[in-house]
Structure formats: structure tokens, C-alpha cells
Amino acid sequence: MRKGELYRRVTEWFEQTMPDPKTELHYRSPYELLVAVILSAQCTDVRVNLITPALFEAYPEPSIMAAAPVEEIREYIKSVTYPNNKSKLLKGMAVMLTEEYGGEVPSSIDELTKLPGVGRKTANVVASVIFGQAAMAVDTHVFRVSERIGLTTDSRSPLETEKALTEGFAKEKLARAHHWLILHGRYVCKARRPLCLECGLKDFCRHYSRGGKD
Questions:
Q1: CA-CA distance, 70 to 34, in Å (whole number)?
Q2: What contacts 73, CB < 8 A, 6 or more positions away?
Q3: What pLDDT is recorded for position 80?
């Protein structure tokens, strides 16, 4: 099957089965989503959602977090992965957001990636979820699922995957496609023991056609 046809069929299936996908991180503002996504690096959304209510109550605005000691921030996030590093990144992000952006989260991916703790994936998430931009964030789920299905071929990096998916999906569907692939990877196309027999994509999935072998 040609790539264009594969993207069309994948898009149609997801639009029927998951018409309105959303991030599973809990947030009420651009600032809160930015914090949550930074915390979610190599950590589950479930764990992040458990600790952010108290964190956001303590630091409802970037300026308040910016003024807090790193050690204090760490106490609120100590159950997530890499709390020492993430507490420093959150502090640095809040300081820059307060001093250089007036406490407002910038919409530009280039500006977002200037913030401590914000790589391209995090910037793309914020740009697509908050500002509705046609951005494709690539995490481990997106990287794995794209390669298994055949949306990418021998992709060597998240950036390479991002470029391929950006070219393959229609621009207006990119923000939803990001969530489609993440959620599919989280609940169906799992890293270990993917639920191939339950998957509606199996009829045109490269992984399944090869007998479920990587």
C-alpha cells in the first residue's frame, strides 16, 4: 500500500473511532499545561495528575513558582521521575516566563523551546493543544506506533518522525493525529504485547502483516 493511501485509511479509522481525542493531562491554563508536560517526561500522565493539584494550588502563577526555592518545589513533585532535575527546570521556566514573557506562555515553538525544560516535543504539545497550531509532538508512543503501522520507515529520530508525519497527515488533522497515535500506543499498540487482534488498524498495519514481529 502506498503511503498516501495508508495515511488516508489511518485517518478515516481514527476519525470514526476517536473523533475528539484530548490530552489526558489535567490543566486549566496554558501555564498549567506547560508545567504538566514538563513533568510528564518519562513519567505517566496518571502520576503527574496525582501531584499537580497541590502543586498548582501552591504555585497558581509563574511568578509565585519563580520566587519559590527549588527545594520547596521538589517536595511537591518528589514522586515523579527525576524530581531533582525537574524542580530546577520548573523554577528556571517560571523565572524566564515571568521576567521575559510577562507571565504569559508564548505561542511560538521557537520561543517555547527557549524555556528551561521545554524541548521540541513539549513545545509542540503546547502549541497544538493550547494554540491550535498544526504541530506534531513525537513521544515514545508516537515514535513506536508510527513505525509499526508503516507511517514512517526506519525513522532514526523523533525529529525525523515528526517531519514524516507532518508531511503525511493533512495539516488540519495534525493536532488530533498526535493524540490518536499517543492514545493508540498507550492502550492498544503497547510497547510490550500489543493488542493486535483487537486493533482496527491490523488489516493495513505493517507490524501485523509481518506476524507481529518488530
A1: 18
A2: 55, 59, 65, 87, 90, 91
A3: 96
CA atoms within 13 A on the CB side of 40: 23
Q: Which three three-digit cell numbers place residue 134?
A: 498544526
Active-site annotation, residues = 121, 139
CA 41 vs CA 38, 45, 63, 97, 117: distances in Å: 6, 9, 23, 20, 10
Confidence at 213, pLDDT banded by 50, 70, 90 = low
What pLDDT was estimated at residue 102?
Answer: 96
SS3 track for the chain: CCHHHHHHHHHHHHHHHCCCCCCCCCCCCHHHHHHHHHHCCCCCHHHHHHHHHHHHHHCCCHHHHHCCCHHHHHHHHCCCCCHHHHHHHHHHHHHHHHHHHCCCCCCCHHHHCCCCCCCHHHHHHHHHHCCCCCCCCCCHHHHHHHHHHCCCCCCCCHHHHHHHHHHHCCHHHHHHHHHHHHHHHHHCCCCCCCCHHHCCCHHHCHHHHCCCCC
pLDDT at 214 over 60: no
